[in-house]
Amino acid sequence: MPLSHPIRFGANYVPPAGWFYSWLDPSPDATRRDFEDLAGIGLDHVRVFPIWPWIQPNRTLIRQRGIDDLLELIDIAAEFDLSVAVDLLQGHLSSFDFLPSWVLTWHERSLFTDPAVRDGIAVYADRLTRAVAERDNVFAVTLGNEVNNLYPANPTTPEASARWAAELIDVVRAAAPGLLALHSLYDATWYDPAHPFHPADNVDLGDLTTVHSWVFNGVSAIDGPLGPATVTHADYLVELAAATSLDPARPVWLQEVGAPRPDISAADAPEFVRGLLDTVTTNPALWGVTWWCSHDLDRALADFPDREYDLGLFTVDHRAKPAAEELAAVIKERRRPVVNRPALVCDVDLRSEPERRAEVAPGSAFHTEWVRLRRSGPLAIVTAGRAADTGHLTARGITTVLTTQA
C-alpha cells in the first residue's frame, strides 16, 4: 500500500463479540463475519490492536501463540482483500489501559524512561514486526494506540518521549524496511501547552503523520453537531500537521475519526459523516481515512464511557448503520478534486513553540478565524516563517496567503 494518490478508506477493527477480550479466545469464523461487513461497504484496510501484555506477559517472555493468533487474523483479512496496519502497544483502548504487570505494582516503571522497560519493548517490537512483515497484506506498524494517553501514569519529559519514539521507529524500520513505521498520538500533542509529547514528534518521526480527530475535545460545544467548527475539525488537524512538517509533501493519515454520542446524535450522524468527508477529502495532504470503529460494543460489557458503545459502523449483530451507508457512498465516489487554495498565516510555529499550543486549540482566535474563512472553501494553514517560501507554497497547492487581519 504505497503512498499514492487515491484516498484510502478503512476501519479500526473492534470485534463485536467480546471486544478486545476476544484475543484471549479468538474465533476465526467471527473474524470472517466482521471482515465481510467491512469489505462489503468498500473499505480497503483495517487497523488492528493485539493486546501487548497478553503477548509479552513477562519482560523476557513473548508468547508465540499470541503472535500466531495475530497472523491468523491478518490472513483472514487477506481473504477479503483487506490490507492491515498493526499497532504494537495496547496500551490505551476505549478508556482502558492494558499494561503488563512487569511495569506495574511493585515494579512501577515508566514505559518511556526506564531502561529495562525500553529494552523489553524493543524486543517485543522487533519480534512482532518481523512476524507480521511476512504477510503481504500488512502495510504499516504503529508504535501504539495514542501512546501519549499512557502519560501521566508513566512519567516522561519531552526529550524522553521523543527519544523513546525515535528508538522504536528505528527498531520497526530495521525489522521491516518495506512497511510504514508510524507514531500515533491523540490531539493533546497539538493543543495542550504542557503536554510532554510535542507536535514536532508527530511530523518528524515515522513515515507519515497520523492525526486523531474527536469532536468531544470541545469542538462540538462551539457550534453543535453539524456546525462548521465540528464538521471541519478533521481537516483542521490535517492542516496543522501539514503546516508543522518540514516536508511539504509529507502525507497525513486521519487514523481515527468517528461520530461520538451525544456530541453527534444518531439522527445527525449521516450528515456529519458526509460533511466531514466532503471537507477533509479535498485536502491534498490526506493519505487516508480510518473510521473508529468497525462495530459497536456490546452493552453487556460494563464500565465503558457511554459513547464507546455506539461508535461502530455496524451494530453488534452486523447491521450496517446509516453512518456506514454514507461512508460507503463517499467511497464509491472516489474523488479527490485538484484544489489550489489560499492559506491562513499562523503566527504560532508549533514545531519551535509548543508552549503556545493553546493559541491554535479549538475556540482560539486563530481556530475561529480559520473556521470562518473555511466556510468559503478549502483553506490551508501556513506558518509565518514559511508564508513567503514560494517553493513550500507551491508544493502544498497554496496560491494566496491571508492574514488574520484580512
TrEMBL record:
It comes from the Bacteria. InterPro entries: GH. This is Glycosyl hydrolase. It comes from Nonomuraea africana. The lineage of its organism: Bacteria, Bacillati, Actinomycetota, Actinomycetes, Streptosporangiales.
